Amino acid sequence: MQTTFPRLLLTHAAQRPQDAAMREKEYGIWQAITWGEMAVLVEQLACGLHLAGLRQHDHMIVIGANRPRLYATMLAAQSLGAVPIPLYQDAAAPECVFPINNAEVCFAFAEDQEQVDKLLEIREQCPQISHMYFDDPRGLRNYDEPGLQSLDDLISEGKAFAAQNTGFFKSEVDKVQPDDVAAMFFTSGTTGNPKGVVHTHDSLLNRARAGAEFDKLTHAEDVLAYLPPAWIGQNIFSYAQWLSCGYVVNCPESAATVTIDLKEIGPTYYFAPPRVFEGLLTSVMIRMEDAGAIKRKMFHSFMTVAKRVGPSLMDGKVVGLADRLLYGLGNFLVYGPLRNNLGFSRVRVAYTAGEAIGPDLFSFYRSIGVNLKQLYGSTETAVFVCLQPDHEARADTVGVPCKGVEIKVADNGEILVKSPGLLKGYFKNPEATAEVLTADGWYHTSDAGFLDAHGHLKIIDRVKDVGRIHGGANDGAMFAPKYVENKLKFFQHIKEVVAYGDGREKVCVMINIDFDAVGNWAERRNLPYAGYTDLAQKPEVYQLIKECVEKVNADLSEDALLAGSQVSRFLVLHKELDADDGELTRTNKVRRGFIAEKYNVLVDALYGGKTSQFIETLVKFEDGRTGSVSATLTIDDAKTFVPVKAAA
Description:
The chain is of the alpha/beta class. Among the domains are: 5-204, Rossmann fold (3-Layer(aba) Sandwich), CATH 3.40.50.12780; 466-647, GMP Synthetase, Chain A, domain 3. The chain contains 22 helices and 28 strands. A 5-stranded parallel beta sheet has the order 4-3-5-6-7, with helices on both faces. A hairpin with a 5-residue loop joins strand 20 and strand 21 (457-462). Helix 8 crosses helix 9 and helix 12 packs across helix 13. The longest helix has 22 residues, at 293-314.
C-alpha cells in the first residue's frame, strides 16, 4: 500500500494516541512523547513553517543528533510537501556550503549553539538562508541574527495559526503524494563534490516495509537511534521503519552516554556498522584481560564452548545433549551476563552493514546468542537490497535479495540492482544519474561480486578498486584492496588500513593501531608510552602488528583468487586517520586516493625499499586550531606464503 510519512504519523496518532512514539534521555531521565503528542507537535511546526514561507518542493536542512523535535521538524516539512535534507552534525562548516547552495536551501533547523555557529560562519557563502531555527537555547540568549529564531517560538506561532485554521494541516498532508520527493541525502563525496540522492516517500517506505516484513518487525520493537540522521541507514531504521511499524525510537542523551543508554533500553532491533561491534568487543576483551585469573579462565573456557556450539544453535542445527547442557551453563554464567552488559539481552534482530565484518567478530556475537546478520544496500537503494534470513547468516555473504529486488552481474563483475527503492535521481546532476541508472531501470552499484550457489550475494570490492599486480612472482594476480584492509581490521589491535598494490609488483599497507586496545596491551606489559605517535612506533607494537599481517598472509595464501594480494611491507602511521583531515569520509570510509597523495612520501618509501621515513603532517583539532605531527616511521617486511595450490 502506497502512503506518505505524514499520513503514517496521523494513522498511528489516531489508532493509539497514548502509546510512546519516541523517548529522549535528558538529565539522566527517559521522557516519552506519545503518538498523539507527536502529531500535535508536527502540526504546530508545519503551521509555523507555513507562516514563515516554507512551500511545496522547498528544501530545508536539518543538522543535529537524533532528537524527537528533529524528526518532528522533518515530518512537518514533509507535511507541507517540502524536502528535508539531513546533514552530518560533525561536519565542519565549509563541508556544508556545497549541499546548502546546491539544493538552494533557505530554511535550516540547527539543534544547538554549535550548529548555529556553523551556519553563521558560512552565511556569507550561503546568503539565501533566511530562516534558522534552534532547538537547544543554551548559549544563544544574546544572539541577534536576522532570521534566527527558537523552535519554541516557531511552535507558538504555529499553535495560534492551527487554532484559527483547524483543517489546514490535514488538507496539506492530503496533498502530498507517495511519488513526491520525501528527502534528499548527500553522498560522502569521496571523488568530488557530494551528490544529492533524491528519494520519494514510496521508495523509502517501500524498502522500510520490505525490511520489516523480512524480519517480522512489529510496533513492539525498541530501537536506539544513536548514529547520524544524515546517514540513510540510521534514517531508515529510526524514521522510515519507525513510521512503518510504529515502534519506539529511543534517543540517547549524548554520544558519550550511548553505551550506558544501550544497556538501559535493551533494544530488540539493533543496527550498527562493524566498527561499533568491534569497539564493543574490544572493550569486553580489555576488561577480561584486567580480570582475575579465575574469571579469565572461566570466560575463555566457556567461550571455547560457545564458538563450537553457539553458531549451530543460532542456525537451528541439531546439537548434542551434552553440548546443549554445557552451553546452557555457559549462558547462565557468562553469555547471558555478557549480553546484558553489552545491552543486547533483548535483541531479537541485529544488523551490520557498510563494511565487511570479520568472521571471528561475526562468530563471536552469534556464539553468545546475539542474532547478528548482515545486509547490503546503499543510499541510492534506500538501504535494503539483500538481507540474511535467520539460520542463514554467514560472515562471507551479505544475504539474499529481499522482496522486490532483482540482481544481475555484469561482464566485468559489477552488481546491478533493480528495486522499488532506487533513487529518483541525483539532484541537478543528470549526467551522474545517467551513469548509474540505465534506461530499463538497472542501478550500477559499482561493487564487484557474485551470487553463490545458495543465492547469497558475495561482495569482493569496489569495481574501480579491483586491480592487478604487475611484475614479480604474482604478475597478473587480482588485487582487492578493501578485502585485504578488512581482513587486517578484523584484529582488535588494528583500527584502519590503507592498502596499495594495483599496477605494482607487491602489496604494501599503512596501518592505524587501535589506541585503546594497543594501549591496554602495552600497559599490561609495563611498556611506557607518551601518546599515540610514541606508542605506534614501539618495536614491540610493530612485532604485534607484524604477527597480524602474517596471519592474514597465511589466510590469503589459501585463496587461489587472492593469494597474490599478500602484504609484503607495512608501516604504522604516526597519527589516526581523521575525517576532519580529509582522510576519511563522514561515514568513516578510507579515502584511499587522497591518502596516497597526502602521504606519497610514505608510499614511495614502502615501494623504494626504505626501512624508515620521516614525515610531518598538518592536523586539525576539534576546536578548529591546526598543528602538526611529525615522526620517523619504521617500515617493516612481512613474511609471505606460497599459495596452497601452487605448493601442491
